[in-house]
Amino acid sequence: MAAEVTAQQLIAKHRPTLDQALQTIRTRAYWSPHPEHPKAYGEDGSLSLPEGKAAFDALQGTRFELDQPGTDDWVGGEVSPYGPELGITYPHPDIDTLLPAMRAGMRAWRDAGAETRAVVCLEILARISARTHEFAHAVMHTSGQAFMMAFQAGGPHAQDRGLEAVAYAFAEQTRTPDTADWNKPQGKRDPLAMTKRFTPVGRGVSLLIGCNTFPTWNGYPGLFASLATGNPVLVKPHPRAVLPLALTVRIARDVLTEAGFDANLVCLAAERRDEGIAKTLATRPEIKIIDYTGSSEFGDWLEANARQAQVYTEKAGVNTVVVESTDDYKGMLANLAFSLSLYSGQMCTTPQNLLIPRDGIRTDAGAKSYDEVVSDLAASVSGLLGDDARANGILGALVNPDVKARLDAASGLGEVALSSKEITNPDFPDAVVRTPVIVKLDGAKPDAEAAYLSECFGPVSFAVAVDSAADAVRLLGRTVRAKGAMTVGAYTTSEEVAAAVEETCLEECAQLSLNLTGGVYVNQTAAFSDFHGSGGNPAANAALCDGAFVANRFRVVEIRKDA
Amino acid sequence: MAAEVTAQQLIAKHRPTLDQALQTIRTRAYWSPHPEHPKAYGEDGSLSLPEGKAAFDALQGTRFELDQPGTDDWVGGEVSPYGPELGITYPHPDIDTLLPAMRAGMRAWRDAGAETRAVVCLEILARISARTHEFAHAVMHTSGQAFMMAFQAGGPHAQDRGLEAVAYAFAEQTRTPDTADWNKPQGKRDPLAMTKRFTPVGRGVSLLIGCNTFPTWNGYPGLFASLATGNPVLVKPHPRAVLPLALTVRIARDVLTEAGFDANLVCLAAERRDEGIAKTLATRPEIKIIDYTGSSEFGDWLEANARQAQVYTEKAGVNTVVVESTDDYKGMLANLAFSLSLYSGQMCTTPQNLLIPRDGIRTDAGAKSYDEVVSDLAASVSGLLGDDARANGILGALVNPDVKARLDAASGLGEVALSSKEITNPDFPDAVVRTPVIVKLDGAKPDAEAAYLSECFGPVSFAVAVDSAADAVRLLGRTVRAKGAMTVGAYTTSEEVAAAVEETCLEECAQLSLNLTGGVYVNQTAAFSDFHGSGGNPAANAALCDGAFVANRFRVVEIRKDA
């Protein structure tokens, strides 16, 4: 099959972007090639907001054709957290047919080399970028994110994380040259001389197990890291969030085909309700790599049972913010209020436990008692979400009934400092929209531990009264060690306390945001600069993105001969 | 404690060497800072051959003091494969005392940073290099290697592999800068500005499980990769080969102390006979990294059970050479004869199965039948080892009675093409020295499979008659897939056959040496240039040395704040 687009054309088009990404992962300065503003789209072949909406609408109630081998059924059932059923059905695979077919294109993909693989991945990302507004709606109506967040986190930010993974994968594969001449002196005799050729080879089929809340943002790093290192990728989306990854698979297949490669290097594995296909796939001998985001229970199962594969997991944790003192009380409250509210606390990075000394804290607005801090924070959240339109824009919708159940139960865990309120979404009357609850707990009471030492995923935070800053630091360390954490925050004007928190984060391997009072939030990380997770505490065994995330997805085969 | 030597002094001394190593792992040209000739030692504070021998002699019959915490016994029992008992006893650890003590120095070691850790490691290697002649005797009298091999492989080549690991570790840790300024434009508003600090942190105590045959060569990569990335290293030597690693631990402790660090960052765990301390240590929660060389059985056990640790294994495989045709028959025979004989075939890289078409092969000396090839190879081995002094210098001694038992049993597996002979070592009359056996097997006979599809570690090779070149390539692929391989060799003048062998090695992830007829042998790899193992077939889950070998031994903790 003749390629419609050559590797040389793709290199000419994308190499500057790749080079900029390679430079940025070394400097970790700000950079992104993917515009964050909705109005930046609509020209040069990209979809405008209404075009994206129309494309999304046109998909509803249809069969999502992918032309994959071994399709034995059509499955669906996605219901938007905003109410509507999507009515889309996807191909269900006979995996005994699909998995062998996915290996067929591996050799040509390997022989294409690291640079061609990278620019093909960049072309896929560019096509995804052009359809960002379609993805925004797809992400919104599967995750329950509000539109702006679905647009940004599901669009440019996810694409950034994918590009970052491609850059790491390319850098890793090109650490070793393609060829080498080796000449070893032998005194007066002729030197020993050899020529050597080094080829990065993929490990086998890579399985991406997608999540409900961030199907693209959490899915793209593993997908692109594996594809760029020579592995076919089988995408198993969360059954409630198939569409964003199905769109991704379709675009990847189109680009692969146009570039002369086998479309089956990227396939979709949609599943029947309660089929649990991930468990079946994860232990298949063809599957050599697994990327997973989701519950600790299944993540731990994968790590223990998918022994034939490299397993990269992002699981659950308990995120802590130490509130000890601040020189910007208002800024701190505003920053925390937004962190707790964004996407109804349904981020793996949302703070859960706020550790506040029971004797209160020092601030630029004077001393504040524990009760004052908690009530001021509650007021700040209430103020932020006081306007229903703004509240809807920040909160989005609850992604599933489990979150609502946990939210409802939370008020029974302690004294409620801020009750959850129901918000109406005029555009989507069936959406379940709730403001966060803040519950007071006493860290000294053993019966409170069960609450604050468990992850309560959703819009639930605990204001935990602690004896002192030192007590807070101890509890922080204990929490990360036992439960893991994707993020840690701290507010303190004391160098001593800051040093103690920093040392605990270094010791327990947790990512720390210190004294955030402006427009950056503890729950947000920027690709190319911030690591998402550390890979060194129980919340995740990998970080997005670093050398360890890509280095073992391929191996280097050396062929040497006498020169 | 004031350091006797400062980081700045060590940087001034070793940074040029580190830089050269960093450059060489990128070019993969020849380089080594460690002289390969015995006479290169004896000046500038290094031990000459007689001084090294004297130092080794002085150790015998003594207690090997290390001043480690938690020593509860003194254990020993090493007997040289050349006969003499070493009579050395080593500290046996109470691991409940030793493991916590090893963590005490981690923080200062972390805070020292990647460059200081690297140059401290290079100082350790430089001190080891200066005592190369002492190590040569220690390796010889624990592994059974002949002196020259013990000197080279146990000395400079092992030191090269250690330095290579330090270079990879340093490169990996410094991919991310120490600090970054991040400024994100916000249109007309002020940009978002943050400062970020990135710190590589070790995972915890690293366990090195040493092997009998190459205690330093196989031990140094893991030891130095872990130490350079901030982890304390507990060295558990093979009970028959303690001394080379005990010397290493002593030197490491001396250097750490002199540089102002805690000596307990490197400790020894010697064990009582049949204690099996490796199994106990491997599942301790403090152990976060394990490096292992040895049997597949225990390697597989570690991978399955040491779930709290990153596990890097080099296990057993079945190495194959395809003999299809050659334009240098004499060179091929000489090269193969040496490969089969070196260290009595007791290398994980020694060829075991020679696949030869039953219809014979084309050569520059005319067509040769299968029988002729086998008998010519047998004659070549006999010629190489015809002189007892030279034979002793190549063969060394059998490392343990199991090897001799396998050798004795091998002649019952098929028609013997070359019998093993006993060689007397006049210097060490108790040494068990044997020439290799070559056994003919028919690849078409199912009952031969049990022999050639199992690893028969030691001086045993099988000349397997195959139907054709294509049959040989198929069997090669099947062998690597099922049993793994550290090395593959092939002799062919056919581009088609070469391409088929290369494709099989790429497909099955095996390192290939093609048409070696000179002074480089399939069983030898050079640090900085050749990968040892691929990490992609059952013989090993890691390669020496690449990014994957170091990248997950540490994590990066980020601390960010508003600028």
TrEMBL record, chains A, B:
Residues 94-534 form the Aldehyde dehydrogenase domain. Keywords: NAD, Oxidoreductase. It comes from the Bacteria. Pfam families: Aldedh. The keyword Ion transport does not apply. InterPro entries: Ald_DH/histidinol_DH, Ald_DH_C, Ald_DH_N, Aldehyde_DH_dom, PaaN_2, Proline_metab_enzyme. PANTHER family: DELTA-1-PYRROLINE-5-CARBOXYLATE DEHYDROGENASE 1, ISOFORM A-RELATED, DELTA-1-PYRROLINE-5-CARBOXYLATE DEHYDROGENASE 2, ISOFORM A-RELATED. This is Phenylacetic acid degradation protein PaaN.
